[in-house]
């Protein structure tokens, strides 16, 4: 996957709009990581990307389930939240290799928990809290 590096400060509405536009452009297979502190908007961005990609069902945080699967017209979407994993060895219980081998969109929140198991061919999206402005996030795509 290739996308020129971008960086911007966005309101929640602008973040949703960006996510939907981004989701409309996705081609499979692709892995997208979503990094950021608690409350930074990772799930909000994942929801927008899914909506843009064509997922019509409600996209919810997989924090406790760890892995949700959604159907879109082009493929399935895997949405993983690795926050509760102890380390990359726990990925085996999720079927990590099978997920990554599928012709699908894969969104990974808290990707640092995957360690070296993340594919090199991925897009990293970072959401950073903006000091003194709780209504905006800095989005960095690389």
Overall description:
The chain is of the alpha/beta class and about 140 residues long. The protein has a domain at about 5-105: Rossmann fold (3-Layer(aba) Sandwich). Helix content is about 20%, strand content about 30%. It contains 3 helices and 7 strands. The protein has helices spanning about 10-25, 40-55, 95-100, and strands at about 5-10, 30-35, 65-70, 75-80, 105-110, 125-130, 135-140. A 7-stranded mixed β-sheet has the order 1-7-6-2-5-4-3. The longest helix has 13 residues, at about 10-25. The chain is globular. The termini are close together. The model has no long low-confidence stretch (mean pLDDT about 90).
Layout of strands and helices, then pairs:
Layout: E1 6-11, H1 12-24, E2 30-35, H2 42-53, E3 67-71, E4 76-81, H3 96-101, E5 105-109, E6 123-129, E7 136-141
Parallel strand pairs: 2-5, 2-6, 4-5
Antiparallel strand pairs: 1-7, 3-4, 6-7
Helix pairs in contact: 1-2
Quick structural overview:
This protein is an alpha/beta fold. The protein is built from three helices and seven strands; from the N terminus they run βαβαββαβββ. Strand 6 and strand 7 form a beta hairpin.
């Amino acid at each position: 996957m290739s996308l020129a590096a971008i960086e911007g400060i966005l309101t929640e509405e602008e973040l949703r709009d960006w996510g939907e536009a981004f989701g409309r452009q996705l081609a499979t297979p692709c892995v997208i990581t979503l990094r950021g502190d608690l409350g930074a908007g990772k799930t909000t961005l994942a929801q927008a990307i899914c909506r843009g990609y064509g997922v019509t069902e409600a996209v919810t945080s997989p924090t406790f389930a760890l892995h949700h699967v959604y159907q879109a017209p082009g493929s399935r979407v895997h949405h993983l939240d690795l926050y509760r994993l102890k380390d990359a060895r726990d990925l085996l219980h999720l079927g990590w290799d099978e997920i990554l081998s599928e012709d699908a969109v894969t969104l990974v929140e808290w990707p640092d928990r995957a360690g070296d198991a993340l594919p090199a061919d991925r897009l990293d999206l970072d959401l950073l809290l903006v000091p003194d402005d709780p209504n905006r996030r800095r989005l960095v795509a690389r």
